[in-house]
Specification:
This protein has 130 residues and is α+β, with helices and mostly antiparallel strands. It has two helices and seven strands, in the order ββββββααβ. Strands 1, 2, 3, 4, 5, 6 and 7 form a seven-stranded mixed β-sheet that branches.
């Protein structure tokens, strides 16, 4: 995704799948805790008013819509963790596995995945180290 876009500007945009079919509307954007880079978007699908999490890295802005390069059916089946909360490393792993993506590591000795859960424009909270 373009890195010069303010993640808050994605909220409210229409989201479409790889074929251009409407998925829903971007409800929240989640940032990498370490870098502040937008990593995930929660898309309100309208299906029972649930949010589907989609990765932003392979997505792009096309004609003022967020195009997610996955099938609509895969996106709608994504885990729903609710919005407004920090994503845990376990939840992130579930999302990476759901989309068949490589799991980035934090570069530390543990090889644990990075923590991507901070909301764009949300409260700045220290990571939960407990």
């Amino acid at each position: 995704m373009q890195t010069d876009i303010d993640p808050r500007s994605l909220i409210g945009r229409r989201a479409v799948d790889r074929d251009g079919a409407k998925i829903g509307t971007v409800d929240e954007v989640y940032l990498d805790d370490a870098t502040g880079t937008p990593e995930w978007a929660a898309v309100r699908t309208g299906l029972f008013t649930r949010d589907a999490f989609v990765p932003l890295e392979p997505s792009e802005l096309v004609d003022d819509s967020l195009r997610v390069p996955y099938k609509k059916s895969l996106i709608r089946d994504a885990p729903d963790f609710g919005v407004g909360r920090h994503l845990s490393p376990e939840q992130e792993l579930q999302l990476y596995h759901h989309y068949g993506m490589d799991v980035p590591t934090g570069g530390g000795e543990s090889g644990q995945p990075r923590d991507f859960g901070e909301l764009a424009g949300g409260d700045q909270r220290p990571p939960d180290n407990g």
